[in-house]
Amino acid sequence: MRQDDSGIAIRGLNAFLTQFDRKCLVVIAQDLAHWPVGEVAAGANAAALSGGYRLISLDFHRSPDRERDLLQVLCNSQVSGCIFLWDNAPHNLDLYQELATNFPCVQVIDPKPIPQLDTVMCDDYTGGMAAVRHLILLGFRQIGHVTVDTPMQAVRDRHQAYVDAMRLANLPLDEHWVLELPYGVTEADRVLRAPIIREFLSQSRLPRALFVCADWLASEIIECTQELGLGIPHDIALVGYDDALPYALTGIPLTTVQNDFREMGRLAVERITFRLTNHLSDVEPCIIRITPTLVIRASSVPLSPATQRWEVIMRYIQDHFRENITAAQTADVYGLDSNYFSHQFKLVFGVRFTDAVNKLRLEYSKQLLKTTGYTVEAVADAAGFRTPNHFYALFKRAYGMTPHAYRKQHTFR
User: What is the C-alpha to C-alpha distance for residues 110 and 154, in angstroms, rounded to an integer?
Assistant: First the structure.
């Protein structure tokens, strides 16, 4: 877009925003074409419409100058709230700070160094631990990690999870098995990384499995392994991160960690509307972390009807954990003996069935405590706990505080 065209577009945006009389929410993103970003925006849009708001998505196309123009328009507008969507660059923080002062704002995915800013983010540390533990449970002992050189907190958390999971399992951390690549999203960046990846995969003591910090990077690893004549997972097993749709449908389906980006967009909008409804502005910020899910595909283990069955079973549990499900009832749904089911479940996932269900319920209850006005008893019931007392006991054991104390620390009641 030419500079004069850009100016016309900015003036048009200013006029457009005046139509909505404070019933407009705005997403400002560096690249809406990037799959996770688009998913967050889609979830936010659905939540905004259900709440009677119009959502406008603005893409500054990774241009700091265009970003500044858009932010200046928003600072002088009458919008109700704003979502800052995954921009870890340090540009224009003064205007982001001004927006956060003017009306409710929520950062999604990677947090900015701005005080009093609510954040919805992935629990990337937990996701990284799940990825590495999956490889360990499959019997791999020589496990490497591929990451990128970036200040993004999500990438740093995934790397730390790799280090901690290996240490907890008393497995060697070989510096030759950790590869940090230059970050970049262009074809030129991809071409630059290829010889570095091929050299890494050609070392004499190659790790037997890799945890890769992002699916798009895992696709580059797969391409290089095939060029070198290596088989996946026979010669080297892979686990990626994000469950980005294009990579799930490649010739070698990628085992990965799935984040519910649409849910993140929904929670961001709910957080803004919660502040607006309760007229809350000068309050402590709230961090909402979304627990990811491991999705097992052919890149880490040869798929069989058995492994595919366990993936389906976990998805069933994620869909029904708010109900009164038991190991015996779930085993019956899939035609399995209950004792065999319980034993195999722990072998596959590393935890007992009851513990897995309760973890899902506790994570869900935390979101309800942060984002709704439900009583603690209603939260316990909505999350699927049998009694409030059972909920209280498990919550305090897991988080070191009562549900009431957690709500007081993270919300404004």
Answer: 7
Give tens-digit pLDDT for 138-158. Answer: 889 999 999 999 988 899 999
The answer to whether 3-121+262-290 and 124-258 have equal CATH topology is: yes
3-121+262-290: CATH architecture: 3-Layer(aba) Sandwich (3.40)
Q: What is the pTM of this model?
A: 0.71
Of 85, 129, 89, 134, the residue nearest 105 (C-alpha):
85
Residue linked to tokens 């809350």: 280
Tokens of 34: 């990037």
Query: Residue 32 is which amino acid?
Result: L
Is the model's pLDDT at 126 over the cut of 60? yes
The closest of 347, 309, 349, 364 to 331, measured between CA atoms, is 309
Domain residue ranges of the chain, discontinuous segments joined by +: 3-121+262-290, 124-258, 304-410
Report whether 148 contacts 221 (CB < 8 A): no
| DSSP category for residue 177 | G
* Beta strand pairing call for 256-258 and 287-290: unpaired
Q: What pLDDT digit, counting tens, does each position of 231-266 carry?
A: 999 999 999 999 877 666 667 889 999 988 999 999
CATH of domain 124-258: 3.40.50.2300
**Which residue has 């240490």 as its token pair?**
167
pLDDT at 153: 87
DSSP code at position 176: G
Closest residue by Cα to residue 366 from 413, 326, 403: 403
Q: Does the structure show a pLDDT above 80 at 284?
A: no
Q: How far is CA 165 from CA 39, 52, 123, 125, 142, in A?
A: 30, 45, 15, 10, 13
Burial of 100 (0-12, 13-18, 19+ CB in 10 A): buried
Q: Please say if the pLDDT value at position 268 is more than 90.
A: yes
Extract the tokens encoding 18. 């005046």
Question: Is CATH 1.10.10.60 correct for 304-410?
Answer: yes
The whole-angstrom separation of Cα 147 and Cα 156 is 9
| DSSP bridge partners of 105 | 82
Residue 336 CA to residue 326 CA, distance in Å, equals 13
Strands 293-295 and 256-258: antiparallel
CA distance 372 to 382: 12
DSSP 341-369: HHHHHHHHHSS-HHHHHHHHHHHHHHHHH
Distance CA 213, CA 193 (A): 15
238: phi then psi, degrees, rounded to nearest 5: -130, 140
